[in-house]
Amino acid sequence: MTKNVQANFEKAFGNGDGETRIFFAPGRVNLIGEHVDYSGGLVLPCAIGIGTYGVIRRRKDDMILLASGNNPLKPVLDLNTLGNDPIHGWGNYPKAVARLIMKKGYALGGFELYVEGNMPSGAGLSSSASLTSLVAFTLNEVFGLGIDPITRVRICQDAEAMNGVNCGVMDPFACTLGKKDHGILLDCSSLKYEYIPLNLGDYRIMLANTNKRRSLADSKYNERRAECEAAVLMLRKAVDIGNLCELAPHVFEQHKHIIKDETVIRRATHAVYENQRTKDTAAALHNNELQKLPQLLMASHESLRDNYEVVGAELEAMVQATVAFSEGLLGTRMTGAGFGGCTVSLLHKDYIEDFTAKVGAAYNAKTGLQPDFYVVSPWDGVKECQF
Ligand code: GLA
Fold first, then answer.
1. Distances (CA, A) of 360 to 76, 317, 322, 344, 365
2. Is the model's pLDDT at 216 over the cut of 70?
3. C-alpha of residue 168 to centroid of ligand 1, in Å
4. Share of the chain above pLDDT 70, in %
5. Which residue among 62, 78, 171, 261 is the active-site one?
């Protein structure tokens, strides 16, 4: 892959002067702890071995030349005028990162950057955080800026906001700080984190892409976030909290009547209980009690469907087809922001072929869509590749 990407860089920009370097940023899958990061909750994602490659070469002027193997648009930007402009399409993500870096007082020069992802975009696997984490890391290395990883994570989160999604911290955190064979138990309020060994034995992480694009996802995402913030404001009349996930379920039950909107109660119920489920999942992994996972993952899925209402017909069809398959299955649920995208399942390695054939056929019969399947492993965060 690195050889191809280097060749594609040269096709895009020619083989001019100066050193080229190549980097890789993973995507991520969230195992559990969905839609709680912006409520200060616990999440348990891992970086995965599919993501975004980038080849970069510095320039002597202030121009930024971008090209992508996944998009024909080749934005040409000037470091001195980095405002968001719809005409620059996907280039607005790298642009936002460069702009935020400079806003913090770091000096950048011009560069040529070719990126190429081997992951599906818009599938809930964080293709945009993979791209922003790649750009933040790459610029940090190539211009010797010395920006620490957490600051880079925040830059990536702000870059998403500059592109219209008020997302949480989970995705760039996982893409930046992932660790091979481990999940990350991240407290999104304090940013304290712990690597949890994913000793899944003969089980594999199977992703099923519904290939239903996440239309409307951005506006619905911002709406959910606002509903959780509304819940906090109401609950603060009774309890002294900074964010929703500080509430243990039993304390929430005592006070939830203070929320005067039935929909908002359901949103808050999801956040509070999902936070507890993440704790329980981490404990189960820690104690090697894998038999507890199916119930935890399904409870997460049902709450995302019934309380949080981010599971569309396609995700539901995939989960139902997966549960009906059942052989060798250690749990399944939707993953990511929802409204389309992927499910994550833990599946015994001997059933992979059978699973893709049977679940694929059942899903297709129900929705008319052709799904894609990926078996992924927990991977390291963004880093430089050797040629
Ligand atoms: C998207 C956001 C994350 C997180 C998830 C839902 O991936 O970028 O911050 O909120 O949705 O868990």
1. 41, 11, 9, 14, 9
2. no
3. 6
4. 99
5. 171
